[in-house]
Design a protein that fits this description.
The complex is a heterotetramer of chains A (602), B (389), C (183) and D (216).
Chain A (H helix, E strand, L loop, with lengths): L2 H5 L18 H4 L10 E3 L9 H5 L5 E5 L12 E6 L8 H5 L5 E3 L6 E2 L6 E3 L35 H4 L12 H9 L6 H5 L6 H10 L2 H11 L3 H7 L3 H5 L11 H11 L5 H5 L9 E5 L3 H12 L3 E5 L8 H4 L8 H13 L3 E3 L10 H7 L2 E4 L3 E4 L12 E3 H10 L8 E5 L3 H12 L3 E5 L11 H9 L3 E3 L2 E8 L6 E11 L8 E14 L1 E4 L3 E3 L6 H6 L2 E2 L2 E2 L12 E3 L10 H19 L5 H7 L1
Parallel strand pairs in A: 7-8, 7-10, 8-9, 10-23, 12-19, 13-14, 13-19, 14-15
Antiparallel strand pairs in A: 1-4, 2-3, 3-6, 11-20, 16-17, 17-18, 21-22
Helix pairs in contact in A: 6-8, 6-12, 8-9, 8-12, 9-12, 10-12, 14-22, 18-19
Chain B lengths: L26 E5 L11 E7 L2 E8 L7 H6 L3 H8 L7 H16 L5 H29 L4 H21 L21 H24 L2 H7 L7 H4 L7 H4 L7 H4 L20 H25 L21 E9 L2 E9 L5 E7 L2 H13 L7 H7 L4 H5 L1
Helix pairs in contact in B: 2-3, 3-4, 4-5, 4-11, 4-13, 5-6, 6-11
Chain C lengths: L1 H15 L2 E7 L2 E6 L1 H13 L5 E10 L4 E10 L4 E10 L15 H12 L30 H9 L9 H9 L9
Classes of the chains: A alpha/beta (602), B alpha+beta (389), C alpha+beta (183), D mainly alpha (216).
């Protein structure tokens, strides 16, 4: 022992003169750091309730609970996360995973209670004092738990594509599809939104696993037109896909198409293995569009003998005659239809009800009848000169192009309308060599057509003139031409809060000369094949049926579906109508199969 | 040059004969789990002859949470939040090793800047851990002033962590593929401030604690680890280095950016509790130097995360790896086996306390007396949670 | 360094029939050896090849093959390389030679393996004492077929909380009439 | 409020405890008395004064049961210096009045917690830290950690966080002091009143019960 060691400890006294470590009022003085992971904040209006936080939470601390206020909003599951702080570990994986970016953490960290069950709250719905805290952990922009960007789809360049009717989209290869499928977060909001409730996450999983057989089986459970929908579906699923909120939504449509592309048509029978037990009952289907054939497929699977009556010379309806080949080539459509036919569904082409065979005789001959005759009559523009010979209907141009006939449009074309038919007609006209101008009453953002369709039309050098209202169609000096008089419009806010209305500006009128004018402003139904009495018995509003819960009508044995019976007028809704009508018809014709089930439900 | 210890045939490490308790000569005493002189939550079953210990048995398991089992049921990203809880005072090493293991198995490489930040994080962790240890060691020998300095000062390091990672104790910062977010603004200034203070504090601690006649008297000659013991007992880290074995994974098998940092392996020859304590003080100073180097040499910008697949379906091809890092107590290792699914097949966490607190402690305790047990225990620097996981 | 190991591996292949030699990373090579050869091989690695440090002993449960794969991780401080020695043992008759005489710390690992997997190491000290658990009367918990969540629910209870799936809940919200039918 | 189920079904309480975990010999060594309820002083002013005194001298038992205990060290050293609030650490249960449960509780530790808790002198209070004692926390599916602490011993204050920072602990302890001053911390009495229910729960998961039924 030396003296130095003995004295050294007394050095502690030096510290008596230094600033003490003690923070005098720690609770007030020390808020969490700016990136502190404290209690949760959820901006409930931004949140869509996809449940990703629930999925990623390894502590099972997050439940999704219904919140009345948000139920039924588009793209919103109506659920909101409830946090259990008897489980949470503040790892903030939920924040990193949050697709909507609504979830973050505050830097608040003090919560005491005498009751453990208190530590549970629906963030953003139940008031908490840290709700407006600006500091706290947020996901760094560059950090992602799933790839936010879509795998680029290879497409023909606009120059190549207007050369002909080759399909523009090339489709994913296996590697690309796997990568795209990997982005799916399996929330299931697409399933809920899809009219047909296709098992999207499940078939996307089958792509990840490389099990295309399973993928095809899953798709056929709810949709017998995967090749078609994989190309032209309006994909409401993608519009609600939460991955799209802070990135690109999953390319659900292209993935669906990828599965079909990977499976050879001759393997369908083996994979789907649809065993049909005949039940001896017959059903007639009027209209071989997606609705009719979907009903035919599911009825056939249940053992019905199905005859489909079609006025045109080929099955497919609007899919064949309304959708141009560069979007949906015949090979794709035929793949779907051929499989349905291969199950023993009889399609009678070139048979028009009302002329070739009467509706009443079908009613007598069959146990049930399903009507899905679609919308085939172009709507009128209601302006003078509309019946000018150089005014063509968009549907007619498309049908002619699809059948290989020359629609005779000339070299300079004006297309009127902003829907998909207008875009299709424009792009078909481009392919036939014409210069195209699209006239639309409102703005581009108001167009009902798919935004991609609009972009592609623009890329293919279709000129879009917006806020242009046609006023009159007049004879041109050259009888192969026509003059359209149109006026510029101003958008006027609707005082009642509806969407803005275009108002014609009388002082800004234009007159342009075109080789022809293609009108594509909508379609209506043609129900002339039904007699007056029948029409009266079927509830018809504005040319459309209003079917009951099982697509049934007030006339016994008659079921309806498709564009003629719904408000959405797209293929996937028609397919679901057909499927649902098949369920309804089965319930109607074989109620004995359902009595137990119904009792269970009630 | 690495020194070798080899296995000497003369070294006897068989278990001692059971003590004849019925003779009435001996007393059995449990130190822990509820005892102020025990690190964490574990217990020592001591058999005493007077106040001399003739047998010591370590009992663990009070903190067993079955991490390895739980991890088998959680997917890869979920586990990243679990692992840090394995060693409470030093979670960062767990985070790093888990991330590193996954990156090796799945062929992902963390970007350079992320590697630097990870190194910085680990060294700060080491600093915080040593500060707490110094407090513990001096407290165990009855000097209660030093813990009031170092444990309080450790809190300033934790403040840095809070800014850097968003968490005080559990950072959950080193994600597989990189780090979660960038260093905050003006972080280097605050690091500098804290480091300068720490340096000053360590000088004070050296004077008050290491030169203290009481501390010297009690720690010198206590718990001598001979170089021959090192390999058979699996002794690693400062415990081995204090016995003259120059081994440091940061130097021997450089990971992260340690090959771009200037430091030497610190070793001593005293082999007793004092030497170990002094070595740790020097290593604490080394930490400060390494942290400064990291702050100076780190690339100013660059990506922080590698491109990652969707973590919800992240599958890693079958493989097996053992990754290790030098933590404050020596080799900390993760043995990981994957089988191609979304879940890990097997994780085994090798904490240095596993041997230090059981086999080594049981050996060294014999012959010491009851008053020194707490000091000896701390001098081996053990953390029970990493033993039992 | 790599050459050193490969020469060694060649020799081991000859003398001990080691199989499945895999280089896991530049410092770690694993291989498989039969149960009978294991102890001799490990002893030889320790005494002749300077693999003097036992990092750990652990076990992987390959329930689908009916084996426990024991892993002995050995470290060489000269070349700074590691060898992972795998020994497959029968899952039903889980027994392995104890190496507590080779390393003073080995018995701890063996005690843990006995408790967590039910592997017997005859002769290993204090093998049957409780290690981490106390009064455990169920299947050794680290075995793959032990369900920890079910055990926890049964013994420690759980709070009833309900969570909705967006998939189902939202479907009923948007298509109230069509939620019920599946086929 | 925790629902105490089955409390009515318990048969008429016997005067003494069976101590059936103990051997015949050991039974002679340990008391078999039942715990007694704390009765407040008949004069309210005295009771209030006693509560005030209790609240300002909370002595914490030095038993770090889980990870959250690590935050007790900063709390007790100079930065947060909890001694300002009359809180100090004590090495033995006999001198302590507050038991801070540091997070998760493994079954093996629970047995020691029960022993320590029962050895503490009344009035005594339990503070539970973190998520784990409330509803299992991170280890809700672990076979070795309990999910709800209040099934086994009564808890007077939960402090949330994983782990709760020293400031949160400070806040929690001040809340506890307020409760004590108000005389509403009745955990120990709950334990006495529902003693058989707590014992039944404890014995359900502690397999080798080789200790007296009431460790006093």
């Amino acid at each position: 022992m030396n003296l130095k060691d003995l004295l050294s400890p007394f050095y502690v006294w030096q510290r008596a003169f230094e600033k003490p470590y003690t923070s005098m009022r720690p609770i007030e003085e020390r808020p969490g750091s700016p990136s502190y992971r404290g209690f949760h904040i959820n901006v409930a209006d931004t949140c869509v309730g996809c449940g990703c936080c629930h999925t990623i939470c390894q502590n099972d601390a997050i439940d999704m609970v219904p919140v009345e206020k948000y139920s039924g909003n588009k793209g919103d599951s109506g659920l909101r996360p409830r946090f259990d702080y008897g489980r949470c570990c503040w790892c903030a994986l939920c924040v990193d995973m949050c697709t909507a970016g609504s979830l973050r953490l505050s830097n608040e960290y003090i919560w005491t209670s005498r009751e453990p069950a208190d530590f549970m709250f629906v963030a953003g719905v139940e008031e908490k004092h840290w709700q407006d805290n600006e500091l706290g952990y947020r996901r760094e922009k560059s950090y992602h738990l799933y790839p936010p960007r879509r795998i680029e789809m290879e497409m023909l360049s606009p120059d190549e594509s207007i050369e002909g009717f080759d399909e523009v989209v090339k489709g994913y290869d296996v590697e690309q599809a796997k990568k795209e499928a990997d982005r799916c977060i399996e929330c299931g909001m697409c399933v809920a939104t899809c009219p047909a409730h296709m098992d999207v996450p499940d078939y996307i999983k089958s792509i990840r696993d490389g099990d295309y057989d399973e993928g095809l089986r899953l798709m056929y459970r709810t949709n017998p037109f995967p090749a078609t929908c994989g190309r032209i579906c309006t994909r409401r699923c993608e519009s609600v896909c939460p991955v799209g909120l802070q990135g690109d939504s999953i390319a659900i449509r292209w993935l669906k198409r990828h599965i079909v592309d990977q499976v050879d048509a001759k393997d369908y029978a083996r994979i789907l293995n649809d065993n049909i037990e005949e039940n001896g009952k017959q059903v007639a289907v009027i209209g071989a569009g997606p609705g009719g054939l979907s009903a035919a497929y599911y009825l056939r699977k249940k053992g019905y003998e199905v005859s489909v009556y079609e006025a045109q010379d080929k099955a497919g309806g609007m899919l064949r005659y309304g959708v141009p080949g560069y979007r949906l080539p015949d090979s794709g459509l035929d793949k779907d239809i051929n499989y349905i036919v291969s199950l023993g569904v009889e399609i009678r082409n070139n048979t028009r009800i009302g002329t070739d065979i009467s509706f009443e005789s079908l009613l007598n001959d069959y146990d049930a009848v399903f009507l899905s005759t679609g919308l085939s009559v172009p709507s009128s523009m209601r302006i003078n000169g509309e019946d000018h010979p150089r005014v063509l209907s968009g549907l007619q141009v498309l049908a002619d192009a699809a059948s290989g006939r020359d629609p005779g449009i000339g070299n300079k074309v004006a297309v009127i309308g902003g829907g998909n038919v207008a875009m299709d007609a424009s792009r078909v006209s481009r392919r036939l060599g014409a210069d195209v101008t699209i006239l639309y009453r409102r703005r581009i953002s108001d167009m009902p057509a798919d935004i991609e369709e609009i972009h592609e039309a623009q890329e293919e050098a279709c000129t879009i003139v917006t806020q242009a209202i046609p006023v009159e169609i007049m004879d041109a000096p050259d009888e192969k031409q026509v003059i359209i008089k149109w006026g510029e419009a101003e958008m006027v806010q609707d005082p009642k809060g509806g969407r803005p209305r275009p108002v014609l500006q009388e002082d800004r009128m234009h007159e342009d000369t075109y080789d022809c004018i293609i009108s594509a402003i909508g379609q209506g139904s043609n129900l002339d094949y039904l007699s007056k009495e029948v029409q009266e018995q079927l509830a018809i509003e504005w040319g459309r049926f209003t079917p009951g819960e099982y697509q049934h009508t007030s006339l016994e044995k008659v079921f309806v579906g498709g564009d003629v019976a719904n408000r959405t007028a797209d293929a996937i809704s028609a397919i679901e109508d057909g499927h649902h009508a098949a369920r309804g018809i089965d319930r109607f014709l074989r109620p004995e199969m359902y009595t137990e089930l119904d009792q269970e439900i009630s | 040059m690495t020194q070798l210890t080899g296995h000497s045939a003369s070294l006897d490490f068989s278990q001692p004969e059971p003590v004849d308790m019925s003779s009435g000569k001996y007393v059995k005493l449990w130190q822990g789990p509820q005892h102020p002189g025990i690190t964490g939550n574990m217990s020592l079953e001591l058999t005493l002859d007077g106040d001399e210990i003739i047998e010591c048995k370590t009992h663990v398991g009070y903190l067993h949470r079955a991490f390895e089992k739980l991890m088998e049921g959680r997917n890869y990203i979920q586990n990243f939040t679990v692992v840090c809880r394995i060693a409470v005072p030093e979670p960062a090493f767990n985070e790093y090793l888990y991330a590193e293991g996954l990156e090796q198995l799945s062929g992902i490489e963390a970007p350079e800047r992320a590697q630097w930040i990870r190194t910085l994080n680990l060294e700060m962790m080491r600093l915080a851990s040593f500060m707490m240890w110094i407090g513990g060691q001096s407290g165990a020998f009855g000097l209660y002033t030093v813990p009031n300095w170092t444990i309080a000062y450790r809190d300033y390091v934790l403040d840095l962590f809070e800014e850097m990672t968003g968490g005080r104790i559990y950072h959950m910062y080193m994600v597989p593929g990189g780090v979660r977010f960038d260093l905050p603004k003006d972080f280097d200034k605050r690091v500098k401030e804290v480091m300068d203070g720490a340096e000053k504090l360590l000088d004070q601690v050296e004077r008050v604690m290491y030169n203290n006649v009481v501390f010297k008297a009690r720690s010198k000659g206590l718990g001598i680890i001979t170089p021959e013991m090192v390999d058979p007992y699996g002794i690693v880290g400062p415990n081995a280095r204090a016995s003259g074995i120059k081994r440091d994974l940061r130097k021997d098998e450089p990971y992260l950016v340690y090959d771009q940092l200037d430091f030497d392996i610190i070793s001593g020859t005293g082999a007793d509790a004092y030497e170990r304590a002094y070595l740790r003080l020097q290593e604490t100073r080394q930490c400060i130097s390494l942290i400064r180097q990291c702050m100076d040499r780190m690339p100013r910008s660059g990506p922080l995360q590698a491109e990652m697949p969707n973590v919800l379906h992240w599958k890693i091809p079958p493989g097996e790896t053992y990754v290790k890092a030098e933590c404050t107590r020596g080799e900390y290792g993760y043995f990981m086996v994957t089988d191609g699914t979304e879940y890990i097949r097997r994780v085994f966490v090798r904490g240095p306390s596993y041997t230090h607190a059981i086999a080594v402690m049981e050996k060294l305790a014999v012959g010491t007396n009851i008053a020194d047990i707490a000091g000896l225990m701390v001098s081996l620097h053990t953390y029970p949670p990493e033993i039992e996981r | 360094m790599g050459n050193l190991t490969s020469a060694l591996l060649e020799r081991l292949e000859r003398d001990f029939d080691i199989t499945d030699i895999t280089e896991r990373h530049e410092r770690l090579t694993t291989f498989k050896v039969t149960r009978d050869h294991a102890e001799t091989l490990i002893r030889e690695l320790r005494d002749r090849e300077k693999y003097t440090h036992l990092n750990f002993i652990t076990c992987i449960d390959y329930i689908e093959d009916g084996v426990f794969s024991l892993v002995y991780m050995l470290q060489n401080y000269v070349t700074h390389t590691m060898l992972g020695v795998h020994v497959d043992i029968d899952r039903d008759k889980a027994e392995m030679t104890s190496i507590h005489t080779l390393w003073a710390q080995a018995w701890t690992y063996q005690r843990e393996l006995r408790e967590m997997y039910g592997i017997n190491f005859p002769g290993s000290p204090r093998l049957h004492e409780d290690f981490m658990l106390e009064g455990w009367d169920d299947m050794p918990p680290m075995r793959r077929d032990f369900d920890t969540a079910a055990y926890s629910t049964e013994h420690f209870g759980h709070v009833d909380r309900e969570s909705e799936e967006p998939r189902q809940y939202m479907k009923v919200q948007f298509y109230p009439n069509r939620g019920g039918d599946e086929e | 409020m925790l629902k105490i189920t089955g409390a009515d079904d318990i048969p008429e309480q016997e005067d003494v405890l069976a101590n059936d975990g103990l051997s015949e010999e050991d039974r002679k060594l340990f008391s078999n008395a039942r715990p007694k309820k704390y009765e407040p002083y008949p004069i309210k002013a005295i009771e209030d004064f006693a509560n005030w005194a209790r609240a300002n001298s909370l002595w914490i038992l030095g038993f770090g049961t889980g990870c959250c205990s690590i935050e007790l060290r900063p709390l007790m050293t100079s930065r947060f210096d909890i001694s300002r609030f009359g809180v100090a650490g004590r090495p033995t249960p006999r001198q302590s009045s507050v038991f801070v449960i540091g997070g998760y509780v493994s079954v093996k530790t629970l047995k020691r917690i029960i022993r320590s808790y029962e050895q503490m002198q009344g009035p005594k209070f339990v503070v539970a830290l973190g998520s784990c004692p409330a509803n299992g926390g991170m280890y809700f599916d672990s076979y070795n950690t309990i999910n709800r602490l209040d099934l086994y011993i009564p808890v007077d204050m939960y402090i949330n966080g994983c782990m709760p920072r020293p400031e949160a602990l400070l806040h929690g302890i001040m809340e506890l002091q307020n409760d004590i001053k108000a005389g509403s911390c009745d955990g120990a009495n709950r334990y006495v009143e529902n003693f058989d229910w707590y014992k039944a729960n404890q014995k359900k998961i502690i397999k080798n019960w080789n200790m007296p039924d009431y460790n006093w």
